[in-house]
Amino acid sequence: MTANLMAILPYLVLAGGALLVMLVDSFVKSMRKDHLSNLSLLVLLGSLVAQQFTQQYSSDLFAGLLATSKFTFYMNTLFVAIALLTVNYASSLYSRSSSFSSEFYPLILLATLGMCLMAAATDMLVLFIAIEMMSMAVYLMVAGNRKSIKSVEAGFKYLILGAFASAILLMGMALLYGQTGSTLYSSFAAVSSSGGLMTSLAVGLLLIGFGFKIAMVPFHMWTPDVYDGAPSHITGFMATGVKAAAMAAMIRIVWVLIPQVSVVWAPLIGVLAVLTMTIGNLVALAQSNIKRMLAWSSIAHAGYLLLGLMTLLKPTSDSAVLSVVADNAGGALLFYLLAYAVMNLGAFGIISYLAKNRGEEADNIERYAGLSRTRPLVAASLAIFMFSLAGIPPTIGFAGKFYIFEGVVKAGMIPLAIWGVVNSLLSAYYYLRIIIVMYMKDPEESSYKGSSWETAFATSVLAIISVLLGVIPAPIRDVAVAAFKSLGQSG
Amino acid sequence: MESTLRWIVLIPLIGAALNGFTVRMMPRKLAGIIACSAVGISFLLSVRLFIAMIGMDVADRSLHDLVYTWISFGGIQIDVGFAMDQLGVIMALVVSGVGFLIHVYSIGYMAHDEGSNRFFAYLNLFIFAMMMLVLGENLIMLFVGWEGVGLCSYLLISFWFNDEANAAAGKKAFIVNRVGDFGFLLGLFVIGVNLLPHLNPGEGLFAFSVLQHHAHILAPAATVIGLLLFLGATGKSAQIPLFIWLPDAMAGPTPVSALIHAATMVTAGVYMIARLNFLYVLSDTAMLVIAIVGAATALLAATIALTQNDIKKVLAYSTVSQLGYMILACGVGAFATGVFHLMTHAFFKALLFLGSGSVIHAMSNEQDMRLMGGLRKKLPLTWPTFIIGTVALAGVFPFAGFFSKDEILWKAFSDGNIWLWITGFLAAGLTAFYMMRLVVLTFFGKNRASDEVKSHIHESPLTMTLPLVVLAVLSIVGGWIGIPHFMGGGNHFEMWLEPVFNSSHHGAAHAAAAHADHAAEVAMEWTLASASLAWALIGISLGTFIYMKKIAIANAAKRFAGGSIYKVLLNKYFIDEAYEKAIVNPGYKFSNGFLFKIFDKVIIDGILVNGSAFVVAVTGSLLRLFQNGMVRFYAWGLFAGVAMFIIYLQLAS
Asked: CB of A160 within 8 Å of any CB in chain B?
């Protein structure tokens, strides 16, 4: 038992930290808000440190409910880093503006805990609880700007539609339980190779449940409204953290069900990947609101992720080839999650940075005019993020897409790879437009200006990382492949 | 110790970044100091490795510093790494050593220029790229450096871009080099295609060591590869047919002409051929073409230099001519000799350019020699150093140029092709002649400048004259490390490079040395050396005599054959005009008439861009209709999706 508790120390730190922050906020009235933010940062850092002490991996914690491995290590680090940045972006906002309340801090810690558990869960019940823990916190955070109708509406919409999605997911779990009599992932191997229609349906419902969270077409319709309505830093958190967590959980459960999934669902996922990226990019072209544009772009990026998932699932008879291709495809997916987090959080960081002076969202693209003149460093960072999102070398976004498409080509699906590249091309149009507005138009009276140096610093660091990992992606990619390999042989 | 290598390359980049990113804030003096110390450190590190290398066994003199693997997919592996062998260390020393002196010189030269910080940033960036070129461990790194120096060259030629002519010269250099680089790239592709199927795992596709190891695989394609890569060299090293950009490149500040367009960058082609010697020796055809192009360029450029009036243009054509010698040496398989001349030339040509810079500085930016004269007394330090550079270039014993040039002529002679030797020999006399013309017009006689300019003439500051002195010393003693055997010297330079070119004992030079009667051989060497010394002295005397005493002879020569020969030479054989008519104009017409008006406007813009944009816009707006903001509608969408999944499942199973 002690060993089990030691292994989940990082999660315990997050859980305890969330409670602590909540208590401090309620009872220590004199506490200033930015101290709460610092406390939350400490908790998150503590969780990272705790993780360093728990490197003995175990696949069998609490009788198979949880498993820690290089995979969870990789994902946890990513989640905690995302949360750290989000708190960083939020801190000056929450300490100044009365429209935001300090519940944000315990909520984000709980959401992070949920995400970490989603990646670590090897039991459906744990998974479901983890998903709900994350989702509930995120619903509240989306509605975090109490004085903005848009924010509250977005939170409510997300709550209702999220409840539907959870129901569908739960239905899938129930069906799967009906087939195996167990909620443990390890028991799925038996049905996955021989399973009938009912198992297929169960898996399909699971895919829909996760597909909702990652904004897969046709379950994406909530995304633009919610991303637009939520405060910018929360949108960044959702687009990167929530999506990565859903993807991690999906990879994990799908990986044990692979024979089943690959025969029945792989072709559909391929089709949906194409639809997702195409629709995402097409609609993004027409947006004049940067948050909505990035919302649609995040749908498009979900399409690239699904393309990676599709390569992972592709049925092959040659098992040696399969394992190599799968390792690379899985590594590419995990790398992409990181790449997307870096560039997208950077972009949302800058949006929330620019918003601060006015207490409103900095979402009108036209008002980015002349940012290169007034805030050269911030403009340069945003330009790097846009290049990266468009997949232009030498940025991390290029490396991420390159690995995904490389996997697709190696799996022999060249038309899909070409379609992915065409989509990338399409997306360049709307990403580069931001750069044009920033660099080729003169600053105007109404142009945004930011203030918080913490955010500017954090986004500059992200910009440097974007370029650095774009030039030297291989070491991180190796880590990602190793993380994926630690999931072991497929079902 | 081997990781020192990366710092030799990177420190100039750091210097460039420091100056480049703070271009408006950095105090000028500090910018100069940063730039100089960056190159200076690079030089000291190179010296350190050189000393370490001397202490090693011959077989171990190859340092390797792998930084990381850049690309690894589909069997192609390309590393970012640096390697230094006997050839690399010579190049590194020349680049950083001469580079350092020119940096110091620039502090004085650019002192009055607004953009000196930008200038130093570019200069450091250039040293970085050049180091990457000479120390890269594979052809791709070399190519990155190759393009990098090209970029810096472009930036620095058009450094004073407010003047239309400078901007045009920069563009010309860039575009002409593009032709060469295209050939270079094709050469790389041919190597890649031929080599890829034969690689063992872990072998870098373009690594020099791997290329050398697998050279036999490339043998059937050696002629094609060699000529394609050589096309790149004709661009970068200004050989026929692509030499036309170099004289125009003199539009840049004079230190740039000295560093990039005389001492270092333009020798990149020579370095590349020497580096790939194991490939070139596989193809006699390629070698012959190289030798002929080199010899022809040497003579052609020397004849043009006879008539030019701009002091820097004379030196520019002289550079083209000397590069021709180096290429000729490579073409006859005497790679070590080519590199030897590369080094001595770097000393005396940098000296001459810097000296001319000092003259121009004194003459308030006047470059026309017809308006100079009598500067001997006004420039007490510039003038003697300039004379040293001149006699070194003319090939007078015992100055640096004598040993290297004479060695090239000897190798060409003993290679068995007498025409190559005659061409080179002719050009050598012309060299002495046009250099004396330059010296007399500039430093002797009466000053022909306006009174205004005259009153300003002054010797340059110490930062400018000190590098002149150092380079002058090098121009005297630089050749002594390569005194050939027949004169009783040790020919240390060639011995040092021997292992690099070991595998490529080529042509008659070595065969003759092995077989022919030794005594007759030595006698022949003495004869040729004496002949070329006498020939140089004749050139010098004639030049001095005509331009000091009997200017009438020169004027008579101008009128010879109705003045047509003079006109042809003055106008550089009308090569620019011929290119203009044969290539540029038809190209422009084709681009404007077809590519722009029909292909671009109608097909690309009309059908592809606007057509697809229209389709995309319409689809996008249609899709937006689904985005109506109603939760109920979204929920229905969700369930429609579920239904779709179930229907799909029914159909699929």
From this structure: yes
Q: Which residue of A has its CA nearest to B68?
A: A472
B314-343 tens-digit pLDDT = 999 999 999 999 999 999 989 999 999 999
| Alpha carbons A462 and A469: distance in angstroms, whole number | 10
B231: tokens are 């096309």
pLDDT in tens, A395-453: 999 999 999 998 888 888 899 999 999 999 889 989 999 999 999 888 887 777 776 77
Contact assessment for residue B345 and residue B271, using Cβ atoms and an 8 Å cutoff: no
d(CA B183, CA B160): 30
Find the CB nearest B73 among A219, A283, A406. A406
Spell B44-64 as b/e; 16+ CB within 10 A means b. ebbeebeeebeeeeeeebbbe
Q: Which of A158, A205, A282 to mutate to test the interface with B (most CBs of B within 10 A)?
A: A282
Is the Cα dihedral A294, A299, A304, A306 positive or negative? positive
Strand, coil or helix: A428: helix
Across the interface, of B616, B641, B645, the residue whose CB is closest to A282 is B616
Residue of chain B with shortest Cα separation from A280: B620
B81: which strand partners?
B66
List phi, psi (to 5°) of B368: -80, 120
CA distance B3 to chain A (A): 18
Residues 61-90, chain B, touching A (beta carbon < 8 A):
68-69, 72-73
Q: How far apart are CA B273 and CA B610, in angstroms?
A: 48
- Find where tokens 């083209």 sit: B320
Q: Is the pLDDT of residue A193 over 70?
A: no
pLDDT of residue A347: 94
d(CA B484, CA B481): 9
Length of chain B: 653
Instruction: Look at residue B445 in the predicted model and tell me its pLDDT.
Output: 83
CB-closest option in A208, A264, A286 to B642: A208
Q: Which of B615, B618, B645 should we substitute to test contact with A (largest number of A Cβ atoms within 10 Å)?
A: B645
Nearest by CB to residue A208, choosing from B621, B635, B645, is B645
Q: What is the pLDDT of residues B246-277, one digit of tens each?
A: 998 988 899 999 998 888 999 999 999 999 99
Q: Which two tokens stand for residue B52?
A: 């370490």
Instruction: Return d(Cα B73, Cα A60) in angstroms, integer.
Output: 36
ipTM of the complex: 0.88
Q: Indicate the helix (H) or strand (E) that contains B315.
A: helix B311-331
Burial string for B305-323 (b: 16+ CB within 10 Å, else e) reads bbbbebbbbbbbbbbbbbb
DSSP letters spanning B125-146: HHHHHHHHHHHBSBHHHHHHHH
Q: Which residue has the higher pLDDT, A341 or B26?
A: A341
- pLDDT the model gives residue B579: 86
A278 residue type, one letter: T
Q: Does B624 sit within 8 Å of A283, measured CB to CB?
A: yes
* A352 compared with A245, residue with greater pLDDT: A245
**Distant-in-sequence, close-in-space partners of B189: CB < 8 Å, separation ≥ 6:** none
Question: Across chain B, what does the average pLDDT equal?
Answer: 88
Instruction: Say whether pLDDT at B602 is over 90.
Output: no
Report residue B513 as tokens.
């040395």
Q: Which helix (H) or strand (E) holds B83?
A: strand B76-84
Contacts of B629 in chain A (CB under 8 A): 225
For chains A and B, count residue pairs whose Cβ atoms are closer than 8 Å: 79
> Using CA of residue B593, residue B598, residue B599, residue B602, what is the dihedral sign?
positive
A133 to chain B nearest CA, in Å?
A: 22
Q: Do B627 and A204 touch (CB under 8 A)?
A: no
CB B268 within 8 A of CB B299: no
Q: Which residues pair with B63 in a beta bridge?
A: B84
